[in-house]
Amino acid sequence: LKSSSDSKDAESVIERIIPRLQHANCAVVLSALKVILKFLRFVSDEDFKGPMVKKLAAPLVTLLNTEPQVQYVALRNINIIIQRHKEILQNNIKVFFCKYNDPIYVKMEKLEALIKLANAENIDQLLLEFKEYSTEIDVDFVRKSVRAIGRCAVSIAESAQKCIDVLLGLIETRVNYVVQEAVIVIKDIFRKYPNKYESIISTLCENLDTLDEPEAKASMVWIIGEYADRIDNADELLETFLETFPEETSPVQLQLLTATVKLFLKKPTEKPQEMIQLVLSNATQETDNPDLRDRAYIYWRLLSTDPEAAKDVILSEKPVIADDTASLDPEMLDGLLANIGTLASVYQKLPDTFVARVRPAVQLAAGDFQAPTLDDGGAGQDPARAEQSAPVPDMPDLLGGLGDLEVSAPAPAAAAAAAPVDLMGDLLSLDVGGPAAQPAAQPPAGGSDPFGLDSLGGAPAAAPAAATQEPSLPVLLTVEKGKGLEVSGRLERRQGQVSYELSFRNATQQPLDGLMIQFNKNSFGLAPAGALQVPPIAPGASQRTSLPISVDPQAATPAPAKPVLQVAIKCNQLGVLFLADSVNLAAVLMEDGAMQYAQFQQVWVKAPAANTQQQQLSSGGKTLEGCVQSLQGSGLFASGSGAFGAHLSGKFTLGALALVEVSAPQNGLVQVTCKSQRVDLLPLLMAHVGKALA
């Protein structure tokens, strides 16, 4: 959109867009409204702006005569618009009156619009509507209608007495939930207009027996405490609540504590003194709520050291409140007005809070390296756009420090690592305990592990003998480190789905239950797709389960990629246990990674040198066809053969391509070339190919 401070240019743009307000498509109407509202800010001619604002009312009213779903979307947008431009619909409040057959979600939005459009001129008409709505059968709608009356009283001072009269009439109906909502909103009215409408307190006190909801109880207790000096039997009223003090919810207990202290300060007689001793004793000795206990200690010390200071603090004048229940801060309102007609206006959240606009960092050298999607016939990705891709933001650490953990590699041999892999930076310096790791074996000749996957941990502990025909799993957490729980597992890919095959063996003397699992953010965006389904494990028994895994870009770490999955497992009896597993790339290479040979060649030749890695690897005594078969079994797909050897393709979970060229074996060695948009994945891909060929 063009943004100009020139008033005439803005007027010209608006005049060109005005005809679109009559379009039959609701989306076009909302988009036109968005543009007009944006450019109205630059119009300085009030003679132009006034009539233009009036023209915006008709299309909005028309949107409210469509099917309920479109009405709801229109109302969500209208509720944003009228926070900034009430004048557009100020004279059209009748279109927001609820019809008997409106769905509840439409009624709720209409009610919100009526509250925002309320003023001293139309309040009488609105109060009649709200009173009528308060007699409907839908409880949630009735509650919101009663609260609407209170919000109007708070926001429009001239209407406060009228609103209170309506609320008193509703209290006389003796409908339980209506009375409770009325008490809640009257408390807000008292806070807005202190010492002005106390005459209605007696009516409220007559309905104490009907109050059973925590918010209504807390509101009534606040009223009694605030006006204890004007209520003759305030001590008796509070005493009825104190009888059930230990069973009350935290908000009610906090209000009872404060109200009893206020009563004592305003009426320092024998009975309030007994009540204050009882409530302070309960709040400090019989509760585990730190907020309640701390407030009770503060009151106790204030009262015991300086009662006058306690009066100054507890009975001080309170700031008046304002009705900001549904108001948005100016910055957010500007953002939503700029997104009228989109999901942001329906959710009433800025797009960045629910749209993932980021991808893992893609490292590209200069050059035209296009990465076509595998289902679009070869349409390429703009390399400049790939270069500008923002890295995944550094999300909060969900698991705590998982650094310095050994990763049990499934291979029998392990290579010595130059430094331990630590994705978390060892934030908590957690010591998972257990015996010292055994010295790592030297890597086999031929360099079959160029990236050092095997160096992530010592040789795996021997898995327990399987009682069934299911294949054994590598041990990830030994009995010593798992406080008596042995965890074995492996990431696998089955029928297009990543799963985590897990086995739990209970070596303790007690049953273990309540097993839960959580992953730390990782290079492949892996996250549990559901809860861990493991029944209680008896002492000496084992349980095996398959945990489905989803791929979530929000759970991905920035480059460089590391083949490590850090896991936290929680058990009711043992607490939280930490382990780390090496990621088998065959599990994170997807089924849609196959490419036609012509498409493969197109991408291959355009890949710059910086996105390429070459290495000689052992063929394991295989022919070229045998090498291709081994790689096909590891998540890659054969695309064809060329003058330099066989070509294979794959696709990682987060969308990066994996391209591999394998030359014909010579003297037991093959020349392997790997290419990908993500440079940080190349060492992992080369290591994966080396293991598949060995």
Textual characterization of the structure:
The chain is of the alpha+beta class. Helix content is 39%, strand content 13%. β3 and β4 form a beta hairpin. The two termini are 58 Å apart. The model is unreliable at 358-368 and 370-468 (pLDDT under 50).
- Please identify the structural class as seen in this structure: alpha+beta
Low-confidence spans = 358-368, 370-468
Strand content: 5-15%
> How many H/I helices?
24
What's a quick, concise take on this entry?
By secondary structure, the chain is an alpha+beta fold.
List the helices and strands and how they pair.
Blueprint: H1 7-17, H2 26-40, H3 46-55, H4 57-63, H5 68-84, H6 104-117, H7 123-133, H8 139-155, H9 160-171, H10 176-192, H11 201-205, H12 214-226, H13 234-242, H14 250-266, H15 270-285, H16 290-305, H17 307-314, H18 330-337, H19 343-347, H20 383-387, E1 407-408, E2 475-477, E3 485-494, E4 497-506, E5 516-519, E6 526-528, E7 542-551, E8 564-571, E9 575-582, H21 585-588, H22 597-606, E10 612-618, H23 624-632, E11 637-642, E12 645-651, E13 657-662, E14 669-675, H24 682-693
Parallel strand pairs: 1-9
Antiparallel strand pairs: 2-3, 3-4, 4-7, 5-8, 6-7, 8-9, 10-14, 11-12, 12-13, 13-14
Helix pairs in contact: 1-2, 5-6, 6-8, 7-8, 8-9, 8-10, 9-10, 10-12, 12-14, 13-14, 14-15, 14-16, 14-17, 15-16, 16-17
